[in-house]
Amino acid sequence: MSKSLKKKNHWTNKVHEAVITRSKEGELGFDLKGGAENGQFPHFGEVKQGNKAAVQSGKLAQDELLLEVNDMPVAGLTTRDVLAVIKHCKDPVRFKCVKQGERMTP
Q1: Residue boundaries of the structural domains of the chain
Q2: Pairwise CA distance, residues 66 & 16, whole Å
Q3: Average model confidence (pLDDT) for the chain?
């Protein structure tokens, strides 16, 4: 691979991790949107500020794509399946996320 290609920004360089512990009520403090049933990657809806879930490291932002939950890829899963994966994870839960890029219009 040429050096010029290595220097270009690739979306994988922008992937980050957020580690969250559930609140006493079992909440993680965000809504999940998208999913395979909608022909989309799962992504975060509203990220509730001031929730009782503890963010141990990183941060979550609205509309970020969810790529992995505790090292398990979730692309191609329905929202229901992603929520089931999250439900069965022990605390803390690690999310790998990436900010969505620009959308192309035909």
Answers
A1: 14-98
A2: 10
A3: 83
Task: State how far the Cα of 103 lies from the Cα of 95, in Å rounded to an integer.
Answer: 23
- pLDDT in the model for residue 102: 60
Superfamily grouping for domain 14-98: PDZ domain (2.30.42.10)
What distances in angstroms separate CA 13 from CA 8, 9, 37, 59, one per listed residue? 10, 7, 28, 16
Q: Is 66 helix (H, G, I), strand (E, B) or coil?
A: strand
Report yes or no: 87 and 74 within 8 Å, Cβ to Cβ: no
The residue whose two tokens read 């994988």 is 12
Residues β-bridged to residue 39: none
Question: Do the beta carbons of residue 77 and residue 36 sit within 8 Å?
Answer: yes
Tell me: the pLDDT tens digits for 57-87? Answer: 778 888 999 999 999 999 999 999 999 999 9
Task: Flag whether the pTM goes above 0.85.
Answer: no
